[in-house]
Design goal:
The chain has helices at residues 16-26, 46-59, 83-86, 108-118, 132-140, 170-174, 176-183, 194-197, 204-211, 216-236, 246-253, 300-311, and strands at residues 6-12, 32-39, 67-69, 123-127, 148-154, 189-192, 201-202, 241-242, 258-267, 278-281, 292-298. The chain is an alpha/beta fold. The strands form two sheets. It has a nine-stranded mixed sheet with strand order 3-2-1-4-5-6-11-9-10, with helices on both faces. The longest helix has 21 residues, at 216-236. The chain binds alpha-D-ribofuranose and calcium ion.
Length: 315
């Protein structure tokens, strides 16, 4: 039986970890058909997240993948960014320049709607930033919901606690109202929160392995992670920073590296104290219907072996 690549749309806010996720996905065309990248404001403003997405297409030699700019702010909340982690350019550590890879004229929301409406229900959405674009597409055209195969996202936290407030993880915190729409859409959700991404630590040895691949992609990844890890090393006392977003592409490529549980997840949108909390009902005490696969365990060595091997395929 021929192996057809899975069609996906990655919605992202590069961010070094988003950038690594993009390279992992773009390095695997025989497994993942990246229909397009949509950028959203998050780690840094939209002007830079869309540019950074285009830079990763250029670095991966994937001139065939269209990049679209989406929403420049959340639905209701003021935009909160994370230059304190990612640097002013969002992917500090990388060679930052104006990419030759073009930005498409169409809005990201229109690309998501049009692509899903033209599809046959087999397209997976892969959001790794605030969920503003995805939620806006659902609001604009609710008919797309039944045409989404799965949503494989990075966001949320439970046992780990939040990384922006004690309760909330950044992607959900920035746009909790958008998250509420996406988590309530009824389609299969595979959720990689901090509980699992904090097990995927870019230690010095692992970063050195990227640098030793010997190509531009490996060098760039090592340089980006050396920059972004400093914040988490200082904050958590770990030997490296967590690789959040690459858990999504790694899951798509090798799901057996991950372990999850079907649970109910609700999003807090009212309380100022716990705004953006993902209330993960791990033990089923709420009686609410499960709406997500909550990923809570990972073979981190397996993820890094996959990443190193796939990055070595790039120019
Ligand atoms: O909390 C981590 C998440 O927020 C990652 O997706 C990172 O890129 C930022 O978007
Ligand atoms: Ca991100």
């Amino acid at each position: 039986m021929t192996h057809e690549p899975r069609p996906i749309i990655i919605d992202c806010d590069p961010g070094q970890d988003d950038a690594v996720n993009l390279l992992l996905a773009l390095s695997s065309p025989e497994d993942l058909e990246v229909l397009g990248l949509t950028a959203v404001a998050g780690n840094v403003g939209l002007e830079k997240t869309q540019r950074n997405a285009r830079l990763m297409c250029e670095l991966a030699g994937r001139g065939d993948v269209p990049v679209f700019a989406g929403c420049e702010r959340p639905f209701l909340r003021p935009l909160v960014t994370a230059e304190y982690v990612h640097g002013r350019e969002g992917i500090d550590g990388a060679d930052i320049h104006e990419p030759t890879h073009p930005l498409e004229d169409a809005h990201a929301i229109d690309f998501i709607v049009d692509t899903l409406m033209a599809g046959d229900g087999n397209i997976t959405l892969v959001p790794t930033g605030p969920l503003t674009n995805v939620a806006a597409a659902i609001v604009k055209e609710p008919k797309i919901v039944s045409r989404i195969a799965e949503i494989v996202l990075m966001g949320g936290a439970s046992r780990e606690g939040g990384n922006v407030t004690p309760s909330a993880e950044f992607n959900i915190y920035v746009d909790p109202h958008a998250a509420k729409i996406v988590f309530g859409c009824g389609r299969p959700l595979i959720v990689h929160g901090l509980d699992v991404t904090h097990q995927v630590i870019a230690t010095p040895d692992r970063v050195t392995a990227f640098a030793e691949i010997g190509n531009a992609a490996g060098r760039t990844v090592a340089q980006m992670l050396n920059f972004s890890s400093r914040y988490d090393v200082e904050k958590y006392g770990t030997s490296g920073g967590p690789l959040h977003d690459p858990c999504t592409a790694a899951y798509l490529l090798k799901p057996d590296l991950f372990r999850g549980k079907r649970v109910n997840i609700e999003i807090e949108t009212a309380s100022e104290l716990t705004l953006g909390e993902t209330s993960v009902d791990f033990w089923g005490v709420s009686g609410r219907e499960p709406n997500a696969l909550w990923i809570y365990e990972v073979d981190a060595d397996g993820v890094f072996a996959l990443l190193t091997e796939r990055l070595s395929r790039l120019p």
